[in-house]
Design brief:
D-Maltodextrin-Binding Protein, domain 2; alpha/beta; five-stranded mixed β-sheet
């Protein structure tokens, strides 16, 4: 396998792949079609496989050529974005945040006005995606990720606790709150499986009962929304339900919480962690998480 020792020809190749034509690529690049064709030919010799099938009147990407075209297109797009940002001098003014769908929907986005009030000069770009993120990707400044956590981890923001929540609409006439004794009266909403519910019931010595675990959801945020809509009692992470609890849309059943080993971690792009915008966001989210923890502790 020969290593690629030069990037020469990649721009010509990407342009020809995009247009499906050496002639149209040459027009965009202000070259002759023969010059573009030569660059692509030299690139094919460098990589050791054909990129195009050449027909008398047109060209077509090979399977490997198609894969390389996608990769090169993405690389050049990132490069152009970076150059444009440097030319505008807005690298310090744009904060790119990556996080999960549920956390973005139920916690981060509703609270971002508080951050923008403190730092109105920053242009925020929030990418909500449950897939793993490359923290060294130039398109990411900071990431808040959800998953298993350990005490003492310097990246740990908040260790979650699962709490049973319900809509006030479930309260009958004359009732001011629901208790664990009411769980058998309503559907118990789950995230994927009832395992967490069983752990909580066991922690509160309430396993004996005829419980309805018939409704499951794929995301915590959707689960919290279902509870807010009065579809049953949901067991959700406190952080996901926090905004709804503050607003009174959801109420918490007082009980012992089950052991839970997941939470939120703050990750900064190692190439950008000393930048002021990253430090400002870190300080803000740590303060917000500390306040949320303070409000949760009395329920422990």
């Amino acid at each position: 396998m020969k290593p690629l020792r030069s990037l020469s020809g990649l721009i010509d190749f990407e342009c020809a792949a995009r247009w499906g034509s050496f002639k149209l690529a040459a027009r965009e690049l202000h070259k002759t079609p023969a010059a573009v064709s030569l660059q692509v030919k030299q690139l094919e010799e460098a990589v050791g496989f054909a990129l195009f099938v050449r027909h008398p009147r047109h060209i077509a990407l090979t399977a490997k050529g198609q894969e390389l075209a996608v990769a090169v297109g993405r690389m050049l797009g990132d490069l152009r974005t970076k150059v444009a940002a440097l030319q505008r001098g807005d690298e310090e003014a744009v904060l790119r945040i990556s996080t999960t769908h549920s956390f973005a929907l139920k916690w981060l986005v509703p609270r971002m006005p508080g951050f923008t009030k403190l730092h109105p000069e920053l242009d925020l770009r929030i990418d909500s995606n449950d897939a793993p993120v490359d923290i060294e990707d130039d398109a990411v400044d900071v990431a808040i990720r959800y998953g298993p956590v350990k005490d003492g981890d310097p990246a740990l923001l908040f260790r979650e606790r699962l709490v049973p929540v319900y809509s006030p609409a479930l309260l009958g006439e004359g009732r001011s709150e629901l208790t664990l004794a009411d769980l058998a009266r309503f559907p118990l909403l789950c995230e994927r499986s009832p395992e967490a519910w069983l752990q909580l019931l066991n922690e509160n010595r309430a396993l004996k009962g005829d419980y309805d675990f018939s409704r499951t959801y794929s995301h915590w945020g959707v689960l919290a929304q279902a509870a807010a809509a009065g579809q049953g009692i949901a067991l959700v992470p406190y952080g996901i339900a926090f905004q709804d609890i503050l607003a009174g849309t959801l109420r918490v059943i007082a009980c012992r919480s089950a052991p839970y080993a997941s939470g939120y971690r703050f990750l900064a792009n190692p190439h950008k962690e000393t930048m002021l915008k990253v430090q400002q966001f870190r300080a803000w989210i740590v303060a917000e998480m500390t306040e949320m923890r303070r409000m949760l502790d009395p329920q422990a």
